[in-house]
């Protein structure tokens, strides 16, 4: 059996019947959507999804910074007032 990363779960049939009610009952927590008792999707509040996207973007930017750190020795110092 696969691990379910949510404390609340529902079948696809339940989701089809009344998605609004399901979201309301979850009280903002993720809902594991199951198909034949296996997680097939996770339903998360829009606010949580947006936060996850921001964290992923921050992580990716961090990787770019690490990748470019060796370029620092070839950097040219510039005075913003002279630009």
Question: Can you characterise this structure?
Answer:
With 83 residues, this protein is of the alpha+beta class. The protein has a single domain (8-73), classed as YefM-like domain (YefM-like fold), CATH 3.40.1620. The chain is 45% helix and 18% strand. The chain contains 3 helices and 3 strands; from the N terminus they run βααββα. A 3-stranded mixed β-sheet has the order 1-2-3. A hairpin with a 2-residue loop joins β2 and β3. The longest helix has 23 residues, at 46-68. The radius of gyration is 22 Å and the shape is elongated.
Summarize the SSE layout with pairings.
Blueprint: E1 8-11, H1 12-17, H2 19-26, E2 31-35, E3 38-43, H3 46-68
Give a nutshell description of this structure.
With 83 residues, this protein is α+β, with helices and mostly antiparallel strands. The chain is built from 3 helices and 3 strands.
What is the ordering of alpha helices and beta strands?
EHHEEH
The overall number of domains is 1
Fold-level CATH name: YefM-like fold
Which structural class is indicated by helix and strand composition? Answer: alpha+beta
Note the overall shape: elongated
Low-confidence stretches: none
Query: What can be said about the biggest beta sheet?
Result: 3 strands, mixed
Number of helices: 3
Rg (CA only): 22 Å
Number of strands: 3
CATH architecture: 3-Layer(aba) Sandwich
* Oligomer description: single chain
The CA-CA distance between the termini, in Å, is 62 Å
Widest beta sheet: strand line-up: 1-2-3
